[in-house]
Each structure stands twice: as structure tokens, then as C-alpha cells.
Design goal:
mainly beta; Immunoglobulin-like; 5-stranded antiparallel beta sheet; 3-stranded mixed beta sheet
């Protein structure tokens, strides 16, 4: 017996699909300029909440360093506010090395090229919006 279709359900199904709308996922392109060396890995952390800033990233990326400009693609990012921190892990130990006073000894940077006074910048200083495909340019000193 062939399957039976109920035509009254078809309009309800189409209405539900229309109301759901698109997934609103975008590609975030992170362009890191002024990478001084191809030694080590670029370590990138993406945050979406101020209370998690520099503690628990939403996403983390690691890519072999390339001198000059590096471009990283992060697909399927929901639209919203984010902040990025990154550093060049020259010795490949997976952490930002510091001197005895706690000052970083490896190059680091933040989205919006944000800088803090006597420490890292606040989340709000590094925050940017992803609305559709978005490019964030960060200069690594």
C-alpha cells in the first residue's frame, strides 16, 4: 500500500520552517599581521563572555606560525559579540611564557589591538561583533 500524505500538515510544516529562519552562522576570519617568525605556533583563544575572558575560551585554535601575515578561518560562528587573545608560542610548549615578574616573553595581542594598563585589556576593550562573515585584523608586535 502506498504511503498516505496529509495535505493539511504541509502548510504547518512550511510555516514552522519559515519561522525557524536561517541558522545565522558566519565565518570569522582572523588576520594576524606582523608575525615576526615562522618558529612555533600561533595560539588563538576566542571568548564570548566577559566573565570567562582569559580563563575559559569558547574556541581555541593552534596553527603553525608563518612569518608575515597569517589568516585563520573559524566557520560556524553564531552572530554575537566576541573577543580574541593570541600569542606566538615560539618554543611550542603550549603556554605563554613569562619572566620572573610575570611579564610575557613571547609576542601576544588582542582583538581591536586592545592594550591594558598594567595588565591585559578588559573584555570590553577587545570585544567586536560578528554579523555575517566578519574579518578581525590583529597586529602582533
Amino acid at each position: 500500500m502506498p504511503p498516505r500524505f496529509s495535505l493539511p500538515l504541509l502548510p504547518a510544516t512550511l510555516l514552522a520552517a519559515a519561522l525557524a529562519g536561517p541558522a545565522c552562522a558566519a565565518t570569522l576570519t582572523i588576520e594576524v599581521q606582523q608575525v615576526a617568525t615562522a618558529q612555533g605556533n600561533l595560539m588563538v583563544a576566542i571568548y564570548d563572555q566577559a566573565d570567562q575572558w582569559l580563563k575559559t575560551p569558547l574556541r581555541g585554535l593552534r596553527q603553525a606560525a608563518v612569518a608575515g601575515t597569517m589568516t585563520l578561518q573559524v566557520p560556524d560562528m553564531p552572530e554575537g559579540d566576541y573577543a580574541v587573545s593570541l600569542f606566538l608560542d615560539r618554543n611550542g610548549n603550549g603556554k605563554l611564557d613569562t619572566n620572573p615578574l610575570g611579564m610575557p616573553t613571547e609576542p601576544y595581542a588582542f582583538s581591536n589591538d586592545a592594550a591594558g594598563a598594567y595588565g591585559p585589556p578588559r573584555y570590553e576593550q577587545a570585544r567586536f561583533s560578528v554579523q555575517g562573515d566578519t574579518r578581525a585584523v590583529i597586529h602582533l608586535p
